[in-house]
Amino acid sequence: MNRSADKALHFGVFEVMGPQVGGTYSWAHPRSESANYLNTDYWISIAQTLERAGFDFLFFAGGYGYPIVDGDLSEVAVRHGINFSGLDPDYLIPVLAQHTDTLGFVVTQSTGLDHPVQLARRFSTLDHLTGGRIGWNIVTGASQNAVAEVFGHERMVPHDTRYEMAAEYVELAARYWETAWDDDALVVDRASGVFARRDGIHRIVYDGKHYRSRGYYGAPPSPQRTPVLFQAGTSPTGRAFAAEHAECVFVQATTPARTAAAVTDIRRLAAEAGRDADSITTMAGLTVFLAETEQRAVELAAEFDAMQTDEIVASLYAGNTGIDLLALDPDRTLHQVLDAGGPVGQMGTSNIERFLDDDAPTVREILDQLRGLGTRGFRIVGDPIQIADAIERLAAETDLDGFLIEPVFEPVDLEDFGRLVMPILRERGRLRDGEAGCSLRARITEQPGHDRLGDAHPALPALVSMPV
Ligand SMILES: Cc1cc2nc3c(=O)[nH]c(=O)nc-3n(C[C@H](O)[C@H](O)[C@H](O)COP(=O)(O)O)c2cc1C
After folding, report:
1. Which helix (H) or strand (E) holds 31?
2. What's residue 468's pLDDT?
3. CA 229–ligand 1 middle distance (angstroms)
4. What is the pTM assigned to this prediction?
5. Which atom of ligand 1 sits closest to the CA of residue 351?
6. Ligand 1 mean position to 195 CA, how many Å?
């Protein structure tokens, strides 16, 4: 990986197979067509737009959760379709792969819900069907209170236990992918009628604290074997998990300074875990209000902002953290709420910790800060040159390796970014275009032919030396 200040940057697009992204309200705006998310052609057209523009991948967030406020499904979430109503993008990926050649795809799947073998087989299948263009965004899951009730669990699994389970989950999945079949075990020789070599297929024996497995894995090795391992979740435990397991980390962007600190911390933890810190790709979300003129871009941002309300902010924040901001004293800080024994986050904690600095904002200030922000990362507004400059500045300030564009009005925002900003970045040497036949891992690591997890990943030597 090239870590110079003027390195090429990676670009993905943050999507959800739902009405809109980012926990904000935009689908009803006249510029937006995202209410078409149930239509396959809508997605094919977006994937083709991204491939033409030179994006590395299309990323799908997702999950089974929804915002709960006051003990029940949030009214505003349903009314405006905010983090409620979503489909499973897994089924979309093979369709989009058929209509693209170089674009990668990353799908978020939470650990802790199904058995690792179920997830492993889904990703083996997707890696085959995309020709090695798939990544897995590992999360321990947002909106855990809703997930617990939907799955019929008595209570939420505590935050850090979820990460302990996730470590086993990934390790077992990687054993299926990396060790169950030898490279030459699949023979498929018509003349002899030999399909596969029995001595090339290995029994998986795994006795973890949370997961067990004894048996064989039926999916033959795919181009990458293990999907590119992304991770999202920036709490201290989340960062430690990322440093051990992730190849690409989706960092929760807040201020450039805090994001830079998170990036440094993840790299430091990775080095402590015996990894090459520079081998980890870090990316953050980026919302772009872009137009041919700065004035029009400012107008678009204002039109979007006018659609957002405190109820939307509070619903989303409750869905992320379990804390209902509108039920709190607006003049107190979260420190005071937590110290007073108020709601304590066993859900996502990144969005609590970011408001616990020494000069912590009050609840009212948090509502103001988050209005229009949702789960979005950085926000920039301007004409094409201003946007390209701002992206380069953010990359320099944070040491991030790239950005996930979080569209507001779709698909026009993506078309405009591809048409107006990507050519400028390309001209400045900031883009690395994809090649057909190149795996997502090779593209992200910038190493042609680097399709497999590789010995440098800490999971692999341990797996390979394991008795089978
Ligand atoms: C930038 C970012 C994106 C995320 N996307 C998702 C997602 O799509 N689905 C999901 O269930 N969790 C998602 N999460 C992660 C959950 O919030 C996380 O797995 C869990 O709640 C613990 O996160 P924490 O380490 O930040 O506390 C995301 C987190 C971040 C920081």
Report:
1. none
2. 45
3. 14
4. 0.94
5. 26
6. 42
